[in-house]
Design goal:
The chain has helices at about 5-20, 95-110, 130-145, 155-170, 175-185, 225-240, 255-260, 265-290, 295-310, 315-325, 355-365, and strands at about 25-35, 50, 50-65, 70-75, 80-85, 115-120, 190-195, 200-205, 210-215, 330-335, 345-350, 375, 385. The chain has about 375 residues and is α+β, with helices and mostly antiparallel strands. The strands form 3 sheets. A 6-stranded mixed β-sheet has the order 5-4-6-3-1-13, with helices on both faces. The protein has a 4-stranded antiparallel β-sheet with strand order 10-11-9-12. α6 (about 225-240) packs across α8 (about 265-290), α8 runs antiparallel to α9 (about 295-310) and α10 (about 315-325) runs antiparallel to α11 (about 355-365). The longest helix has 25 residues, at about 265-290. The structure holds adenosine-5'-diphosphate (ADP) and magnesium ion (MG). The site of magnesium ion has 3 residues, from α3.
């Protein structure tokens, strides 16, 4: 989104806040959703991921209260009120647990929160794999940190945002989404080392290359995802332990091949995905630095094939979407997120975007799948204060 449009949205939200709370907000903050270009199921293996912030954000207008209460309004999901003292693990449900969780996390880190009026408005689609949850948490956390004088670098704030999602919303997520939302930069992807937590911005300039990113939300129901996720994690840990390493991050492709006979077939294939995916992330970084988008596209498609064949987390909708995008001229396409539903990311010449949408839509209709939802995304700035 361009800066003028962002400012207009912030000003409009401030006016809306005035009508609701009877006073202007003390500030307006925004934090983007994210996409992961490559590096899937590598995070919990201490490996590498390469996410970028997108041009869709959660906006938060907020003002301190002094009665220990949180008065919350999400334009998407409605209003709610809760006492600060009642925000605790397992105490809240639904969207309030994310927003109140972010405020709780700021308090845990020492912010002397006295209460808040908070109005939230987000154009990150919910549950489409673009991390609408991290967007609202990061925007709320940054607002709370600013208003109540909590210092901390962006990675520290991202780790607090993760605590909100894990401990209060009760979702066992890694830290990638929050790092991406907090640290994102325009025209950059972020190389995140999930062991050291080092974040390195890598040029990801699509426009000069005439390229775009198309997201295809397959709308496939997320069936079995939780149990399957736990099974994948267990298989990865089994393989690492059998190879005498702390995590698959430490296993080379050669060492894995050499140990093939000693691993069960499932653990071997799961590990092969992770070990090669880590290598693909680093190769993608080199491709980006060389502005070699053809090479990047091949890596993206190889990631999909590996997630489908070795990690076995794809479903027909994801395969059909990736294949249709490639038929329409995508340099590469892959499922993003944990799998078993969710979205496909396709990298393609901008002028091919409408063709790809048509191709995917008709392929879905032919197979009798629910219609997909398509939109484009551009690498954009991370969380910040706007007013
Ligand atoms: P994703 O992060 O991939 O979009 P999640 O299931 O992790 O999907 O997060 C979606 C949840 O985050 C929603 O069910 C809701 O509780 C919360 N959420 C996201 N956006 C908003 C919003 N604009 N207003 C209120 N809650 C939101
Ligand atoms: Mg989420």
């Amino acid at each position: 989104m361009d800066e003028r449009r962002t400012e207009e949205r912030a000003a409009e939200l401030a006016r809306s806040f005035l009508g609701w709370a009877g006073q202007l907000p003390a500030g307006v903050w925004a934090a983007p959703g994210r996409l992961n270009l490559i590096g899937e199921h590598t995070d919990y293996n201490d490996g590498f991921v390469l996410p970028f912030g997108i041009d869709r954000s959660a906006f938060v207008a907020a003002r301190p209260r002094d009665d220990g209460r949180l008065k919350l309004w999400s334009r998407q999901l409605g209003q709610s009120e809760v006492a600060l003292a009642d925000v605790a693990p397992h105490a809240l449900e639904g969207w309030v647990s994310y927003v109140a969780g972010a405020i709780w996390a700021a308090r845990e880190a020492g912010a002397r929160v006295s209460g808040l009026d908070l109005l939230l408005d987000s154009d990150v689609p919910l549950g489409a794999g673009l991390s609408s949850s991290a967007a609202i948490i990061c925007a709320t956390l940054l607002a709370t940190a600013d208003l109540f004088g909590l210092a901390g670098d962006r990675v520290t704030l991202a780790q607090l945002a993760r605590r909100a999602e894990v401990e209060i919303a009760g979702v066992p997520v890694g830290v990638m989404d929050q790092i991406a939302s907090m640290c994102a930069e325009r025209d950059r992807a972020l190389l995140l080392d999930c062991r050291s937590m080092s974040v390195t911005p890598i040029p990801f300039e699509l426009e000069p290359a005439g390229l775009g990113v198309l997201v295809i939300d397959t709308r496939a129901p997320h069936q079995l995802a939780a149990g399957q996720y736990a099974a994948r994690r267990a298989a990865c840990q089994r393989a690492a332990t059998a190879l005498g390493e702390a995590a698959l991050r430490d296993v080379t492709s050669e060492a894995l091949e050499a140990a093939r006979g000693t691993l069960d077939a499932e653990a071997f294939r799961r590990a092969r995905h992770v070990v090669h995916e880590d290598a693909r992330v680093l190769a993608a970084v080199s491709a980006l630095r060389a502005r070699d988008f053809a090479a990047l596209g091949k890596l993206v498609s190889a990631s999909h094939a590996s997630l489908r064949d070795d990690f076995e987390v794809s479903v027909p909708q994801l395969d059909v979407a990736a294949e249709a995008a490639e038929r329409a001229g995508a340099l590469g396409a892959r499922l993003v997120g944990g799998g078993f539903g969710g979205s496909v990311l396709a990298l393609l010449p901008s002028e091919r975007v409408p063709d790809a949408e048509r191709e995917v839509t008709s392929a879905f209709a032919q197979r009798g799948f629910d219609a997909p939802v398509c939109f484009t995304a551009a690498p954009s700035r991370g969380a910040r204060r706007l007013l």
